[in-house]
């Protein structure tokens, strides 16, 4: 009967709105009728909305303060099943109390968590008949429809009400409805209802997952607090999996284990660049360069379309995926079955054991220079394309697989496995698809002789090469023997107050790498650092960039945007060797280096820190085949941070990052420069980052 009168009120309000100009009703009359319709919808839904109190557990996770006080849940079955937001249970409470509509409080227990949609399932034992929420049919919902967010965070006798509209459907890659009604910790776990009191979805903070991360962050999305950007997981989707949820307890986001071609995900085709070893797709036989055509019969033309088909799915789900392998007349379609995984095995980059000869230019500049040089030569003097292919070995890493197999400095590797490679970058991409222990066949040229090698790939070394194992490229070693005072230059970004100072090695020779050092930013400090690092920068071809923090007190997270933009500007303005881009710092500067390095792995290849633990709020992403990031930690002997630093390094090692640890003698200090021995080791570590 309530539902009948509610529909009648809505129809009357809509009919009244259509006839207002004719009948001359006041706007106040329409507002009153609208309020009556909203009140009726709230009354129809509120019997399924309960208040939840959590007791005990932690107050913070990774430095983030968790919500305190009562929260909200929605009854989804008359026998005591309740759904709420996982945000409300991030602290792992020791006790949970649910206040039922009758006013009685009952203990509840967690049945399981849904880490894909950020929900938690509870059960409360009661003889009281409960009213389950009625789900709205998503096929009837349209953007612009009225939506009401409810919660019971304050007075348990009343529900909080926030009115808005449905902003969009299928957000968060098909997992959520978006609304502009205010959504915050006050009503997370409550229902988003329509004007008939039916539940559109369960309110929860949501955000796109971090690249490479397999573990969900239950606090992600909470920053949209009361911003007009709120999300609700459709109740019909929850009810569809509730039996499985009860059986499996915890539900996880399903992972494929692939890398995709770089580009705008909304327009770039889903072409596989690498397959994670021992992943679901590796088991299914996927290979690099495969093009994903369809998932469960649904055509996918872009990477975004692929994510819409995979992101809503859970670990354990099996997908029927069609691949296109090859091109032209040789292309064929392959049908595969992929069973999604909850977690990918930690990835460690395999190691061949060579350092490539460095080019004197990058990208288009290199190709153009070679083309112009060839045009000036007689026809019979031009090198054949096959002679110019591959890359020359600069050094062979001592006691490495390459060393054991007989490869030498000066050999030119032209083929890795079945793939002809035109550069060290292409060879590195081929190795990224391999695993530790894999045997790889190599074709190399030594003078006029072609040689075949079979190499069993090993682990990336964590030691630093000795100076005798490395040789400078081109004229750099001659230039470093006679140096004057370093000349510093300045770099300022538009609309940014900070000044960055930098020292560049003389022009000519190999393309330089980039070392960004997060010091105090003062001119005198930069001058002292440039003087100390000059010989290394010239010998090993490094540009030293020394930005200043916005706050005179030192580096903070507020500087991350500036540093990211500074890195992009340096990369576009200067010729930089992309395999030797390092961000470094001491103390707080080192912590910020960690934050930027782990978030910017597409551009940064190394993080070097001195007496710095990880930032406590930083979630460490898993190592990724296509993003080679190495870590160097310098620890002062007897530093009080030693235990924390080593625990953090173990955390980085556990997810696959190559970690090099150095201990220096002396007392921990925040001096402006490092001792010569430490600088030399850091320089040699950077010099070896282009290893493969």
TrEMBL record:
Taxon lineage: Bacteria, Pseudomonadati, Planctomycetota, Planctomycetia, Pirellulales
Domain of life: Bacteria
MF annotations from Gene Ontology: serine-type endopeptidase activity
Biased composition (Acidic residues): 363-373
Organism: Lacipirellula parvula
Compositional bias annotation for Basic and acidic residues: 374-386
UniProt name for this protein: PDZ domain-containing protein
Gene3D superfamilies assigned to the protein according to its UniProt record, in alphabetical order: 2.30.42.10, alpha/beta hydrolase (3.40.50.1820), Trypsin-like serine proteases (2.40.10.10)
Domain PDZ, chain residue ranges per copy: 253-327, 389-448
Keyword RNA-binding attached: no
Pfam families for the chain: PDZ_2, Trypsin_2
């Amino acid at each position: 009967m309530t539902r009948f009168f509610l529909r009648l009120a809505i129809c009357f309000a809509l009919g009244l709105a259509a006839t207002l100009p004719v009948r001359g009703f006041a706007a106040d009359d329409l507002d009153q009728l609208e309020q009556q319709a909203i009140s009726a919808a709230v009354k129809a839904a509120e019997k399924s909305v309960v208040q939840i109190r959590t007791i005990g557990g932690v107050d913070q996770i990774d430095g983030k303060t968790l919500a305190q006080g009562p929260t909200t849940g929605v009854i989804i079955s008359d026998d005591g099943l309740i759904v709420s937001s996982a945000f409300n249970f991030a602290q792992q409470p020791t006790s949970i109390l649910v206040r039922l509509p009758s006013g009685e409080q009952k203990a509840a227990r967690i049945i399981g968590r849904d880490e894909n949609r950020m929900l938690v399932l509870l059960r409360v034992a009661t003889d009281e008949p409960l009213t389950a929420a009625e789900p709205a049919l998503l096929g009837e919902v349209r953007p612009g429809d009225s939506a009401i967010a409810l919660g019971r965070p304050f007075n348990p006798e009343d529900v909080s009400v926030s009115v808005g509209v449905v902003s969009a459907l299928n957000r968060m890659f098909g997992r959520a409805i978006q609304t502009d009604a205010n959504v915050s910790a006050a009503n997370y776990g409550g229902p988003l209802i329509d004007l008939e009191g039916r539940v559109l979805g369960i309110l929860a903070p949501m955000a796109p997952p971090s690249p490479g991360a397999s573990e969900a962050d239950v606090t992600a999305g909470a920053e949209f607090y009361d911003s007009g950007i709120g999300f609700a997981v459709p109740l019909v989707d929850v009810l569809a999996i509730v039996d499985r949820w009860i059986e499996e307890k915890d539900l996880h986001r399903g992972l494929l284990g692939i890398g995709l071609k770089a580009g705008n995900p909304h327009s770039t085709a889903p072409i596989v660049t690498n397959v994670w070893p021992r992943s679901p797709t590796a088991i299914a036989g996927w290979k690099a360069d495969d093009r994903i055509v369809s998932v469960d019969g649904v055509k996918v033309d872009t990477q975004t379309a692929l994510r819409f088909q995979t992101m809503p799915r859970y670990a354990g789900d099996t997908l029927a995926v069609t691949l296109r392998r090859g091109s032209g007349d040789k292309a064929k379609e392959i049908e595969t079955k992929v069973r999604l995984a909850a977690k990918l095995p930690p990835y460690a980059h395999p190691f061949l054991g060579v350092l490539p000869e460095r080019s004197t230019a990058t990208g288009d500049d290199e190709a153009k220079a070679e083309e112009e040089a060839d045009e000036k030569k007689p026809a019979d003097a031009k090198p054949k394309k096959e002679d110019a292919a591959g890359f020359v070995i600069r050094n062979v890493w001592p006691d490495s697989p390459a060393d054991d197999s007989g490869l030498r400095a000066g050999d030119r590797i032209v083929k890795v496995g079945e793939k002809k490679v035109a550069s060290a970058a292409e060879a590195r991409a081929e190795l990224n698809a391999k695993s530790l222990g894999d045997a790889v066949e190599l074709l190399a040229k030594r003078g006029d002789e072609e040689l075949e090698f079979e190499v069993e790939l090993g682990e990336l070394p964590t030691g630093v090469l000795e100076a005798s194992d490395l040789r400078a490229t081109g004229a750099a070693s001659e230039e470093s023997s006679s140096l004057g005072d370093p000349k510093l230059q300045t770099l300022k970004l538009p609309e940014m107050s900070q000044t960055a100072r930098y020292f560049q090695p003389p022009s000519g020779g190999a393309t330089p790498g980039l070392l960004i050092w997060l010091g105090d930013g003062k001119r005198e400090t930069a001058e002292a650092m440039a003087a100390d690092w000059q010989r290394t920068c010239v010998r090993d071809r490094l540009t030293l960039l020394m930005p200043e923090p916005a706050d005179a007190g030192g580096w903070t997270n507020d500087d991350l945007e500036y540093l990211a933009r500074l890195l992009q500007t340096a990369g576009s303005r200067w010729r930089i060797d992309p395999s030797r881009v390092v961000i470094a710092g001491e103390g707080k500067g080192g912590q910020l280096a960690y934050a930027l390095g782990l978030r910017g792995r597409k551009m940064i290849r190394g993080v070097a820190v001195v007496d710095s633990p990880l930032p406590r709020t930083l979630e460490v992403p898993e190592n990724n085949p296509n993003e080679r990031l190495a870590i160097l930690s310098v620890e002062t002997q007897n530093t009080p941070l030693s235990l924390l630093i080593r625990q953090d390094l173990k955390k980085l090692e556990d997810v696959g990052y190559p970690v090099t640890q150095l201990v220096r003698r002396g007392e921990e200090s925040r001096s402006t420069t490092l001792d010569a021995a430490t600088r030399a080791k850091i320089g040699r570590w950077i010099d070896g980052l282009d290893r493969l």
